Amino acid sequence: MSERDQCVTMAQILGQTPSKAKEMVNYMKRAVELNPILDTSERTLLSVGYKNLITSRRQGIRHLMQQEDEMEGLTVPCKERIQKIKEELINELVGFCTELINLVDEVILPKVEDPESVVFYQKLKADFYRYICEAQTGHDLELSLENATKSYKKALEVSKQNLQSYSPTSLGLILNYTVFLFENAKKQTDAVRIAQETYQTYAPIIEQNSEKSREEAAQIIKLLDENIKLWESSLEETDSEPVNE
């Protein structure tokens, strides 16, 4: 077994153990160094490894942000400690996301030619910019929103020109793009409109996918439908709230 194959095998084994996400990522980084052309399962390993690496950080940051109102009665040293923990989590999150984005930009994408892979990696970049957005404010947030938008739009452009619009890759891209629009870019109306158009257009024809892709496409369509209902309900509640001066 070659060194690269051993790296991929180790990543597969460690992928079942989230606490070993960093080690899994290191094996996949080495595999990319040896040959940056990844097959579908290897791409998934790379993506899952980094997502496992940042999941606890994202959850921790969200929790601390939600608990800010509960900190009023704490002493100054306690508040400073919590702020320091939040900053550490943010730095780790941004660091890991940036590491993956740079790996894709500088090592993988220059070697990729097939459109489906280009869409996958541009979407992956955009998703990780989106995760960075969750932890930023001000000018840093504006830059990350801009970078995420560029990557999503590049992926959408390549997808539209080269892939079947009802394929899991194309539908998954639109699903994540609409989440970005609604939750990060604060373009809720656009998010709902695009999600509705996608659902209405492609839900009736996902059976045209191959048998292997049909189930995945159906699951994405289901998630789109759930998001549409959730977002419409959220917008209705917002519209119904009284306006105060």
| Mean pLDDT rating | 92
Largest sheet: none
**Low-confidence segments, ≥5 residues, pLDDT <50?**
240-245
Query: Secondary-structure element sequence?
Result: HHHHHHHHH
Rg is: 20 Å
**Through-space gap between termini:** 70 Å
**Gross geometry:** globular
Number of domains: 3
Helix fraction? Answer: over 70%
How many strand segments? Answer: 0
Based on secondary structure, the structural category is mainly alpha
Strand content: under 5%
User: Can you count the helices?
Assistant: 9
List keywords for this structure.
single chain, 245 residues, mainly alpha, 9 helices, 0% strand, disordered C terminus, 14-3-3 protein, 14-3-3
Describe the overall structure.
Belongs to the 14-3-3 family. Pfam families: 14-3-3. One of its GO terms (biological process) is intracellular protein localization. This protein has three domains: 1-54; 66-161; 164-238. It contains nine helices and no strands. It has helices at 3-14, 21-34, 40-66, 76-108, 115-133, 138-162, 168-184, 188-202, 211-240. Helix 3 packs antiparallel against helix 4 (76-108), helix 6 (138-162) runs antiparallel to helix 7 (168-184) and helix 7 (168-184) runs antiparallel to helix 8.
Brief account:
Residues 4-245 form the 14-3-3 domain. By secondary structure, this protein is mainly alpha-helical.
Which helices and strands occur, and which strands form pairs?
Blueprint: H1 3-14, H2 21-34, H3 40-66, H4 76-108, H5 115-133, H6 138-162, H7 168-184, H8 188-202, H9 211-240
